[in-house]
Amino acid sequence: MKVSEKSNGAVQPAEDRREESIQAASQSVKPLTNGQQEKSKVEEKPSDIQNLEVKPELKAGTQKPQEAEQPKKLALNLEATLKLVDDLHRRSIQRDNLLNRIHQLDAFEITLIEEGDELESNHFQGCQLIISDDKGRKFITQTAGLIKLVAEFIHRACLEKLGEIESNIVFPQS
């Protein structure tokens, strides 16, 4: 029976055809009286099929592009790795800056609490908040409640940003 008859004319992968031809060959092997087996022409076809499958892979046109792609992939991987290292370095610097800001603010607040009067409810009493731009304009306030709210907001925002940055500092899995 032909391969096309078994598959109703449908195209089959090479492995399926090889298995079918091996099965057909094993059915057509005839034992001889002296213990040796006679191989029919059908069994020779699997070796021909195997040779045909190997030959297209050995064509010069198919091997050279694969070899050329591998160095490009390595170069892209190197570039991607360097980009990742730069990105991680930038995030590490951002993390260090945020930690410094948080520690400065905490140290300032601790100093105010230690030096402040115990009777004061707000340890920012007597502080000044100055916001200035590069054109020399300034906003100045001495309102302790406003300064306390600004300090709390800055502290909370720095902690949130720190958590976000730290969650993004990871090494990719290979």
Automatic annotation (TrEMBL):
Residues 1-72 are annotated as: Disordered. Residues 38-47 have a biased composition (Basic and acidic residues). It comes from the Bacteria. Residues 1-10, 23-37 have a biased composition (Polar residues). This is Uncharacterized protein. It comes from Pelobium manganitolerans.
